[in-house]
Write a structure and sequence with these properties.
Elements lengths: L1 H25 L11 H11 L4 H16 L19 H17 L13 H8 L3 H40 L4 H13 L1 H7 L3 H20 L11 H7 L6 H7 L2 H43 L5 H23 L5 H9 L12 H21 L2 H15 L4 H17 L18 H6 L20 E3 L2 E3 L14
Antiparallel strand pairs: 1-2
Helix pairs in contact: 1-7, 2-3, 2-6, 3-4, 6-7, 6-8, 6-9, 6-11, 7-8, 8-9, 9-12, 9-17, 12-13, 12-17
Length: about 475
């Protein structure tokens, strides 16, 4: 028992060291992260906090223009913001004039300040979750520190979910901490800290990933008469995050999936739709493959059904609320935020943009092959390891590719926020390569029926891995 407590304390200390190091690095750039969309979310949050629409717009302009004067964030990896080409006063004047112009031209209602036409601002009006999340932070700590603290909380929450996901899948404490560190170090950490809805959407996505991992695995049935907790302790799993991960079951997983996607719907419903659809699709393929191999596929089928149902509910909810959909997104891209006439048939031109974007993206990856290398390592993990987290990670990566495909804008070629879910694949897969299979540890995947003597053992009974399996 003292050894278990000591191991638990080591895991907690490791996570605290990683989190403190990340926080210290982010303190070098408390501001300077704003993008053109940040002012829209901020003005919405300030309006929710009780500010008038005009005052909310003025404060959002002041923050955005001040942030734009900061030097590029050389201390923070994965940032690609270019230095501002105008002074702070010029920026304030330009945005103030824009607000006055669009107010005169009919944009006189809504929670966001009138920085553009009503049709474009409706995109941000349809994402109330992130501004609502910001309200207590900007109210208590002001705009600059409030946005920074909100981003830090979002980043920490995502890293903790990654740690719990890996532990729930049966990975070691070392692999779990490596996953959290990768989450901070890769673009996932940078996107989480940016004052945009993408970071909160990503954190909620990691909660959904955790829930799906709990749904896919099957906890071993205790056959020794000493209880599942005793088995887990003997296997060395009931320490720190592993204690919670071992105790959590399918009901907890379903609650995380439903709750995470419900909140994502309010934060960024398009990403919630794509994540739910990707999970349903990948799980359906996985279930078909398991069935073909004669292995149990019930947990995967249940997870696929749940995600398919949530996909339909997210789509129906956005449609009933008349929120902008795929057609609006295509017109937004092709008409420069609806400032030109709509295309009668936008899709041929949209798909032409797709070809141009992805060709440029592939050339970019060939020149700077960091992501391809990580994806190759992820493929190695898929081949060598059997883990409930791997199909979930693949689905998250697919959701990231689909989200980027919905916005084939060359201005986003150097950015990471739209495709950020792709980076969850190496975050969740690569750490598994740190573990070797250990005798006596159950596979987190649904077990295959095992022949015993002249009959068969039911597939829910624990299957012990052989030494060297999966290495």
């Amino acid at each position: 028992m003292p050894h278990i407590r000591r191991t638990q304390h080591l895991g907690l200390a490791g996570m605290l060291v990683i989190a403190v190091a990340f926080t210290a690095l982010q303190l070098t750039a408390v501001t300077g992260r704003a993008s053109p969309d940040s002012k829209n979310y901020l003005s919405y949050a300030l309006s929710l906090s009780g500010e008038s629409r005009a005052e909310a717009g003025r404060r959002a302009i002041a923050y955005s223009c001040e942030s734009g004067q900061r030097a590029p964030l050389d201390t923070i990896p994965w940032t690609s913001r270019k230095p501002a080409g105008e002074t702070e006063a010029q920026c304030v004047r330009r945005l103030t004039d824009s607000v006055a112009y669009w107010t005169r031209n009919g944009n006189t209602s809504g929670m966001t300040a009138p920085f553009a036409n009503r049709r474009f601002m409706a995109i941000f009006e349809a994402r109330p979750g992130y501004p609502l999340f910001l309200v207590p932070f900007v109210t208590a700590f002001g705009v600059v520190w409030g946005l920074w603290l909100a981003g830090l909380l979002v980043a920490l929450a995502g890293a903790v979910c990654v740690l719990l996901t890996l532990r729930a899948a049966g990975a070691s404490r070392r692999a779990g901490l490596a996953g959290a560190a990768l989450y901070f170090a890769l673009p996932t950490g940078t996107v989480a800290m940016n004052p945009l809805s993408d970071g909160l959407s990503l954190a909620l996505g990691t909660a959904v990933v955790l829930g799906c991992t709990l749904l896919l695995r099957e906890r071993p049935v205790d056959t020794s008469g000493t209880g599942a907790g005793r088995w887990a302790e003997t296997a060395g799993l009931r320490v720190g995050a592993g204690r919670w991960a071992e105790a959590a079951g399918p009901r907890t997983g379903a609650a995380l999936v439903v709750g995470g996607l419900a909140l994502m719907f309010l934060v960024r419903y398009s990403q919630a739709l794509l994540l739910a659809a990707s999970l349903a699709g990948v799980f359906a393929v996985r279930a078909a493959w398991l069935h073909r191999k004669g292995r149990r596929s019930n947990p995967v089928l249940r997870a696929a059904g749940l995600c398919a149902l949530l996909t339909a509910l997210v789509y129906a909810g956005a449609h009933l609320l008349s929120w902008p959909m795929g057609q609006d997104s295509a017109q937004d891209l092709l008409t420069h935020h609806y400032q030109r006439p709509d295309r009668p048939d936008p899709w041929p031109e949209f798909f032409a943009r797709e070809r141009v974007f992805w060709w440029a993206w592939l050339k970019r990856q060939a020149t700077y092959p960091f992501l391809p290398v990580l994806l190759a390592l992820s493929a190695l993990a898929l081949w060598k390891r059997r883990s409930a987290v791997l199909p979930v990670a693949v689905a998250a990566g697919v959701a990231g590719l689909l989200n980027q495909a919905g916005h084939p804008n060359l201005d986003q070629l150097l950015g990471h926020r739209l495709i950020v879910f792709v980076w969850l694949l190496p975050v969740l897969a690569v750490p598994l390569l740190l573990d070797r299979s250990r005798p006596g540890v159950a596979s987190p995947l649904p077990a295959q029926p095992e022949k015993v003597g002249g009959g068969q053992r039911d597939g829910t009974v624990r299957v012990v891995q052989q030494v060297g399996e999966g290495t």
